[in-house]
Amino acid sequence: ALIATLLFSTTVFSIPFVVFHGIGDKCKHKGVTRFTNLLSNWSDSEGFCLEIGNGALDSWTMPFDKQQTEIACEKVKGMSELKDGYNIIGLSQGNLVGRGVLELCDDSPPVRNFISLAGPHAGIASVPLCKTERWCVFVDLLLDLAVYSKYVQDHLAPAGYIKIPTDIDGYKKGCRFLPKINNEICRNATYKDRFSSLENLVLL
């Protein structure tokens, strides 16, 4: 209820929202579906969970700087329901997909409010546990390689926001996503303007 209040208290009418789920999850999973439906009912707004690829596997292996952000951008631009503006709710890693849409997506509908639930906006110091799925063997192999190498950045999504405190130089040189959207290397006024255009930014 708090989220719904924060999202829609400054608007005269309810506007739609999109949810980007976390790593290893899917839009059709019960928890994400229930969350989206509850928020839609509370806010009296139309809500959509936007899936990137196949969900669970691609959330681990599809890089942000190209595929995840581009797919999300095209989906948002193709939704007539969002043409007058919409809100983003990010769950964990899904916040970085939302950030990518907000800052990198040209000619897209305006994002009014951004609510982040446990978003790794400043990076994480290690890769999340991959549980027991069969493809986690592949993830574990990648973890044995240098996290800022081109190969790992191309094949392991969390590598795009791993910020090892003892290797900031390596992070800035090799990490392809988080330093970009956080304006930590080359300052981009467009990214700043788009982020600053939000009516509300809520970080939980």
Automatic annotation (TrEMBL):
<dbReference type="GO" id="GO:0016790">
    <property type="term" value="F:thiolester hydrolase activity"/>
</dbReference>
<keyword id="KW-0378">Hydrolase</keyword>
<dbReference type="Pfam" id="PF02089">
    <property type="entry name" value="Palm_thioest"/>
</dbReference>
<dbReference type="InterPro" id="IPR029058">
    <property type="entry name" value="AB_hydrolase_fold"/>
</dbReference>
<protein>
    <recommendedName>
        <fullName>Palmitoyl-protein thioesterase 1</fullName>
    </recommendedName>
</protein>
